[in-house]
Amino acid sequence: MEATQNDLPTLSKNAQKKVLKQQRYEAKKAEKKAQEKQQKKENAERKRKEWEETLASVNEEERSKLIESRRNLRKERMEKRSEEKEKKIERLTRATQCGHKIVIDLDFAHLMTPSEIHSLVQQIMYCYAVNGRCTIPGHLWLTGCEGEMESQLKRLPGFDKWMIEKENRPYIEALKDQKENLVYLTADAETVLEELDPKKIYIVGGLVDRNRWKGITMKKANEQGIQTAKLPIGNYLKMSSSQVLTVNQVIEILLKFIETKDWKVSFFQVIPQRKRPEADSEGYQEVEGEENEEKDDQLDTKKTCIEVPSHGPKADSEGYQEVEGEENEEKDDQLNRKKACIEVPSHG
Predict the structure, then answer these.
(1) What amino acid positions are annotated as catalytic residues?
(2) Does 14 map to a domain?
(3) What is the pTM of this model?
(4) Region annotation Disordered: residue ranges (predicted)?
(5) Which of 165, 286, 296, 308 falls 20 to 30 Å from 6 in CA-CA distance?
């Protein structure tokens, strides 16, 4: 049920407007999702009928050839998926042994609402998918993973099989023997990150705060006595309205830099055009603040590719095999992936 401004007496007028705006966005997103689901169902039914009509229009010999061709195509796709999955496992296994360690600090769950936690969970899912597709993936960690955060993560399909370090304790405890190598990435830091040191462990704050907790990660790092640094964004481009990178953007930028060793390429491939209207050739000031503008962030929604278990063909005496997985034949390169919309959180 959508809240009204009278239901939000403890918030400022500006905050109330943001909450109501977010609710309208969520309602619109749910409606769009329902429409896409219906469209997918209709497309599947249309393709099923087309397949049946094609089989009915040819003789027995041609029908057998069509069915065999369809089986071979499906087999090739399954073999390709299996091969890619094996390579992904090999890359992630190497990353756990010698990859750059990147920690997502989930110790802020108590400061977020369930919907904000859900937003962060969706981003974590995106981060894991991106890391799995990288030629040189990082060694990802989730620390402070407990309570509602842990519950929502466990509801993700296949989360228990993720090749990622899952730690209930906060990083300061789990990695206490490497405290001197901990580096918290925060926009409020004075030190600019020039290179990624394989010995260092880079921490990204996992927080969707709707602009409530400015500077919280810098304060936390200072209290813990660990190093801080910020990405060298200002050296390469000028940011526009929304000046804060999201958790998934920060992770992807780090992963791009690991592959390319080029900050400019990494920034321009990850940061959306609307946030970088012009290149920063003169050296504009570094990104500041903790603002998380809902409108900008929603426009920055990304899609996560999640592998789906393949289904074997069902026997059919008439040759009408299952076509549920065939409704998007023209997009076979997507390899039977689902799409998950990722909301944008703030990077503290």
Answers:
(1) 209
(2) no
(3) 0.65
(4) 1-88, 278-348
(5) 296
Amino acid 55: pLDDT = 86
**CATH code of the domain covering residue 109:** 3.40.1280.30
Quote the number of domains for the chain.
1
Token pair in block for residue 241: 């309205």
Please give the Cα distance from 223 to 201 (Å, whole number): 18
Domain that holds residue 71: 29-342
Residue 22 resides in a domain? no
Do residues 348 and 186 touch, judged by C-beta distance below 8 A? Answer: yes
In this structure, are strands 302-307 and 201-205 parallel, antiparallel, or unpaired? unpaired
Query: What is the spatial distance between Cα 324 and Cα 313, in angstroms, rounded to a whole number?
Result: 10
> Which residue in 259, 270, 264, 262 sits closest to 100, CA to CA?
259
Separation CA 348–CA 337 (nearest Å) = 31
In a domain, 158, yes or no: yes
Helix (H) or strand (E) holding 104: strand 101-105
Return all residues near 97 (Cβ < 8 A) that are at least 6 apart: none
> In degrees to the nearest 10, what's the CA dihedral of 152, 158, 160, 166?
-60
How close are the terminal C-alpha atoms of the chain, in Å? 30
Q: What separation in angstroms does the CA of 72 have from each of 75, 151, 183, 335, 343?
A: 5, 41, 51, 15, 39
- Asked whether residue 271 is assigned to any structural domain, the reply reads yes
* Cα-only R_g, the chain: 23
Share of the chain above pLDDT 70, in %: 73
Residue 43 has pLDDT above 60, yes or no: yes
Amino acid 44 reads: A
CA 68 to chain centre: 38
